[in-house]
Structure formats: C-alpha cells, structure tokens
C-alpha cells in the first residue's frame, strides 16, 4: 500500500484514488489485520467484472437448469443422507460470515459516525471506492459479492435430500446474486449497508443450520429468531433505499445511482413480502395446517 510521510494510513489504488486504510485508523485493531487485506486494490478485478457482466446471468441460468435436472433425476430415487457434509458446509459459511461481519461492520460504524446519512448514501463512484472499496473493507466487500456464487450450493442439499424447494429460496438466491454483482460493478454506496446486514444475518443463520444438521440445536433457541433477523434485514433494506430515493429526488448533487437503488428497493421489498408470508405461514398457521419448511 502506498503511503505518505505525513499520513501512514494514506494509500493510492490502481485508479489513482486516494483512500485511508480502516485498520490504520484504529491502532488497537491493526495487529488483527493481515497485510494482504490492508493492501487490497479493487481496481483490476473491478474492471474485469465490468467487462464480464454476463457471468452472473449465465450462473443463474445454469442454476435454474441444474435445479430442474436435479429434481427430475431425484424423482424416483431415495433421498441422499449427506447431513455431515451439509453441516460442514453450513459451518464454513457461518464462520466466513462472522469474519466478514467483523471486517465490514466497524467500517460502516466508522462511516456513520464521521458522515451524515446523506453523505453515506450520496457518494459518487470514486468516493465509494475511497470510503470502503479499497483496503481491508474493500476485500471483504468483494468476498461478500463473490460468496453469492457458492451459496447456490445450498439448493443442492435441498434437492438431493428431496426437501420442499419453495419459491422464496431460489428467487432469493438468483436475485441477490444478480444485484450484488451489479452493485459492485457500479460501485453503489449502498453496498456497505447491505453487506454488513447480510453477513450478520448469515453468521447466525448458517450457524443455526449447522446445529440443526448435527442435531445439536439448543432447546431454548427458537427458529423464529432467525426469521425475525431476516425480516429485520429486509425492513432496514427497504428503509435505506427509500432514503436513497429521497436524496436522489431532492439533492441534485447526490451521487446515488437511481437504477441500482430501484433494483435494491424492488429486491428488498419483494423479500420483505415473501419473508412475512413465510413467517405467518410457518409460525402462526392454524393447527392442522401444514407448516412450511425453513428457507
């Protein structure tokens, strides 16, 4: 990472954009960060992703085909029993999400403390890259985006175990992958909000799935807690996008991208509706009715 004599936290990324490495702002945290995190330059991969915009589209098409083929192949077969493999997978995603949360949440809190909500939501592309797109927070935001590809494997376990594959599950996986890629390549200022929320929810959610797969769930831990976490994420997501619309309409200097913000609003709005539907259908359906399976 480049630096100056006057400011050792100062760096320049591949696009010539100056930024301050987050961990350097807080010396008590810096020993817990690796050099490769501090030195992360987003520009090479960002440019590559911009020139390969069809990759997420191809991925979700292949995902849909494999779901259809997989369900057809399993129609007359007994379900597989890969609970331990599934448990390991969920544990890996939970650990990854906990680390991602601890790497991105401090950056978001730092930004909210030093900047107004308007300034956080109205950054232009260069400001976004300088604010959280470079260095350690930039690396973990990128990993958040790329994690949406391996998370598609969740559906593999549902199919081979012949569990009900509800619309919310596959719709969520498809739309979040497409949105995250678009959010990254357009350097949306909303990205830090959504990555922190998603990391935080997934840290608990996949940990819960691990305990369920290992049949180790504590009796006191009600699964309704996970669903409430998920719904809370959608409420915050809708609220942030509404705030984005307000600044976009009232402040001509606001750098928020209306296209990306609209996509986020539609995505989070539909998730909120579907998760509420799931919530009431599973936990408050009248006795005798068939409850829905967890997402």
From TrEMBL:
Primary location class: membrane
Keywords carried by this UniProt record: Fatty acid biosynthesis, Fatty acid metabolism, Lipid biosynthesis, Lipid metabolism, Membrane, Transferase, Transmembrane, Transmembrane helix
Annotated GO biological process: fatty acid elongation, monounsaturated fatty acid; fatty acid elongation, polyunsaturated fatty acid; fatty acid elongation, saturated fatty acid; sphingolipid biosynthetic process; very long-chain fatty acid biosynthetic process
Record-linked InterPro entries: ELO_CS, ELO_fam
UniProt cross-references to PROSITE patterns, sorted A to Z: ELO
Keyword Lipid metabolism: yes
Catalytic activity: an acyl-CoA + malonyl-CoA + H(+) = a 3-oxoacyl-CoA + CO2 + CoA
EC numbers, comma separated: 2.3.1.-
Subcellular location: Membrane
GO cellular component terms listed in the entry, alphabetical order: endoplasmic reticulum membrane
Keyword DNA repair: no
Enzyme's top EC category: transferase
Transmembrane segments: 55-74, 86-109, 166-184, 190-211, 223-248, 263-284
Molecular function in Gene Ontology: fatty acid elongase activity
One Pfam family here: ELO
Lipid bilayer topology: Multi-pass membrane protein
Domain of life: Eukaryota
PANTHER family assigned to the protein according to its UniProt record, in alphabetical order: ELONGATION OF VERY LONG CHAIN FATTY ACIDS PROTEIN 6 (PTHR11157:SF17), FATTY ACID ACYL TRANSFERASE-RELATED (PTHR11157)
Family named by the database record: Belongs to the ELO family.
Protein name, per record: Elongation of fatty acids protein
UniProt source species: Fragilariopsis cylindrus CCMP1102
């Amino acid at each position: 990472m480049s630096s100056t004599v006057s400011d050792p936290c100062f760096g320049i990324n591949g696009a010539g954009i100056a930024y301050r490495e987050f961990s350097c702002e807080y010396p008590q945290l810096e020993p817990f960060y690796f050099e490769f995190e501090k030195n992360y330059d987003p520009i090479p991969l960002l440019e590559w992703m911009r020139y390969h915009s069809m990759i997420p589209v191809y991925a979700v098409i292949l995902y849909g085909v494999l779901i259809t083929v997989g369900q057809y192949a399993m129609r007359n077969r007994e379900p597989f029993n890969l609970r331990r493999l599934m448990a390991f997978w969920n544990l890996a995603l939970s650990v990854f999400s906990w680390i991602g949360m601890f790497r991105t949440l401090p950056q978001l809190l730092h930004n909210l403390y030093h900047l107004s909500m308007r300034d956080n939501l109205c950054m232009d592309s260069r400001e976004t890259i300088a604010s959280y797109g470079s260095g350690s927070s930039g690396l973990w935001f990128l990993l958040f985006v790329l994690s949406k590809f391996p998370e598609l494997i969740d559906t593999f376990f549902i199919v081979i175990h012949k569990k009900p594959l509800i619309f919310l599950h596959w719709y969520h996986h498809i739309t979040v992958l497409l949105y995250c890629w678009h959010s990254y390549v357009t350097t949306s200022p909303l990205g830090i909000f959504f990555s922190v929320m998603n990391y935080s929810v997934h840290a608990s959610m996949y940990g819960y799935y691990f305990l369920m797969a290992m049949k180790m769930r504590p009796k006191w831990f009600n699964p309704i807690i996970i669903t409430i976490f998920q719904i809370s994420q959608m409420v915050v997501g809708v609220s942030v996008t509404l705030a984005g619309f307000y600044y976009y309409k009232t402040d001509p200097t606001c750098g928020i991208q209306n296209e990306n913000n609209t996509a986020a609003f539609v995505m989070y709005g539909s998730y909120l509706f579907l998760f509420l539907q799931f919530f009431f259908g599973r936990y408050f359906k009248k006795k005798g009715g068939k409850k829905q399976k967890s997402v």
